[in-house]
Amino acid sequence: MLNSKHRGIKLVLPVDVLRKGAKEPEQQTLQCVYRFEPDPHEEPKYNKQQEAFYQNVAACLVANVTQHGKLPEVSDKFEVVFAKTTFILTAMQHPIGHGFKMKTAPDGPPSDGH
To answer: N or C: which end of the chain has fewer CB within 10 A?
Structure first.
């Protein structure tokens, strides 16, 4: 649940997960809600370029999944730069889904994380 005084973004990313011994990958979903510090409204360009801001943040999150095989966790200090401001994204809960490192997921049976 987002704190009403903070803007946030929910990333929902479809991924293919190949379980150990499976012949075909299984479609799963990674998702997490992140809040921004500082508030994006403090960056003047945000108010005129909100769509560009959120597309930039989403692209950075997807690139992180590609590079590290997981969404940023609660403890990660994930940064995104927009205009002249560096925003720290904080996961508001642990990412949901197989996440490549999780042993279980709410949308499927236990997995070995591969």
So the answer is: N
